[in-house]
Amino acid sequence: MKIVLENLTKIFPSRDKKAGNEVVAVSDFNFTIPDGKLIGLLGPSGCGKSTTLYMISGLQKPTSGRIYFGDDDVTELSTENRGIGLVFQNYALYPHMTVKQNILFPLQNLKGKDKLSKETMLERAHEAARLVQIEELMERKPSELSGGQQQRVAIARALVKMPRVLLLDEPLSNLDARLRLQTREEIRRIQKETGITTVFVTHDQEEAMSISDMIVVMKLGVVQQIGKPQEVYDSPANLFVAKFLGTPPINVFEGEVADGKLYIGEDHVMNVKKVPDQKVYVGIRPEGFTLDKKGALHCKLSNVEVMGRDVSVVSTNEASLNPVVRSIIDADNKLDATAETVRYSLKPHKVFLFNKETGERIHFEVK
Ligand code: ADP
Ligand code: MG
C-alpha cells in the first residue's frame, strides 16, 4: 500500500496563550511512500517526526493537506478504520494479561462483519508471535519479559490485525545498545517478510540509515531531503543534512573560493570549477582525507586512535568549526604519531561546499 502525503501541515496553537506564538510542527510535507518499503523518518528531537506519524495514524488531524492510502483519501478517517499498526517507544502492554492475551486483544475488539472466530484469532496470534519469535513466551506476563521481548510483543500486537501500514515511533529507544542493534535487524526482517509499508521514526541517524529503503530528514517541521540512505549521505542537500548523517560527523571548515581555487585557511586544498568567488563552509567526510607528505591541508596532530581495521587521526586546524578534525584512514597507513603536523590531500567526492548564509549545497566540478 503506497501512502501519499500531500501538503501535510500541522500547526499547534501556543501552549502559552499570552505569548501567542503558534508552533508549526510540520510544514507542507509532500511525499509518496512507495508500496512495501521501509521509510526512516529522521531528525533531531522536536522536528515534527511524531506529529507526522500521528497524522498518518489518525491520532492527530492535519491543519491542512491530505493523506491517501493507495487511492483512498483517509484524511477524515478515524484511527480504528485506517488499518494501521502502531508501536511506541514505551511498549504499553496490559500488565495483568499474558503475552497471548495482549496479542489477541485487538482482534477480540473487532465488531460486526470484522468479527473473527476463536480459531482464526488464535491462528493469527500465533502467526504474529512466530514473526517476532516469541512463541515460547505466550503464557508469560509482561513483567516476566525483558525490554526487548516486551517490544516484540508490542510489534506482534500491531501485526496481528494485518495492518496495511505499520507505524513505529522510536520503538528501540528504551532498549540497551546491543538489543537495539538486534531488534532493528528484526524489524527489518519482519518488514521484508510481511511486505507491509512501514514508517519508522527515529532521531538516531545510524539506525535509520541501516534499515531504511529511504530516509526523510526533517528540521523544524520542514523536510530537508528524501532519498536512499547512501545517496543522501553521498550527496547532502545542505549543511544540516551533511552534519546530521555520519559517525564520526563530517568535518566543517571556514573556507573561501577565489579564482577557481578552494582555500582552507592559507592552504589551497583543491581546484573547483564553476563556483563564483565567495566565502564558504567546506565539509569533509572523515574518510575523505588521504595522508600525503605533500598534501595541501596542514593540521596540527593531536593523537592517533587505532581501532582495528581503521585508524582515527585527531588533529586541529584554525579554520575548523569542530573542536577537532577527525579523519579515518586505513590501518595499513604508517603515520608518525609523534609528528607535530599531519598533511592531507582530499578526495574530491568526499568534499562538499555550502553557502555561508543559507547552508545550501554549492555544486562544483573538479578541475
Ligand atoms: P519529534 O517527534 O520530532 O521530537 P514532535 O512531532 O513531537 O517532534 O513535535 C514537533 C513540534 O511540535 C515541537 O516543537 C513540539 O513541542 C510541538 N508539539 C508537539 N505536540 C504538541 C501539542 N500537542 N501541542 C503543542 N505543541 C506540540
Ligand atoms: Mg517524537
Layout of secondary structure:
Blueprint: E1 3-12, E2 23-33, E3 38-42, H1 49-57, E4 64-69, E5 72-73, E6 84-87, H2 99-108, H3 118-131, H4 147-159, E7 165-169, H5 177-194, E8 197-202, H6 205-211, E9 214-219, E10 222-227, H7 229-234, H8 239-244, E11 251-258, E12 261-264, E13 267-273, E14 278-284, E15 289-291, E16 297-307, E17 310-316, E18 325-330, E19 341-346, E20 351-355, E21 361-362, E22 365-366
Parallel strand pairs: 3-8, 3-9, 6-7, 7-8
Antiparallel strand pairs: 1-2, 1-4, 4-5, 9-10, 11-12, 11-14, 12-13, 13-22, 14-20, 15-19, 16-17, 16-19, 17-18, 20-21
Helix pairs in contact: 2-3, 2-4, 3-4
Bound molecules: adenosine-5'-diphosphate (ADP) and magnesium ion (MG).
Adenosine-5'-diphosphate binds near residues 12, 46, 48 and 50.
Structure description:
The chain is elongated. The mean pLDDT is 94. Helix 3 crosses helix 4. Helices cover 23% and strands 35% of the residues. The protein folds into two domains: 241 residues, 3-Layer(aba) Sandwich (Rossmann fold), CATH 3.40.50; 119 residues, no CATH class. With 367 residues, the chain is an alpha+beta fold. The strands form four sheets. A seven-stranded antiparallel β-sheet has the order 21-20-14-11-12-13-22. The chain is built from eight helices and 22 strands. Bound molecules: adenosine-5'-diphosphate and magnesium ion (MG). The site of adenosine-5'-diphosphate (ADP) has 12 residues, from strand 2 and helix 1.
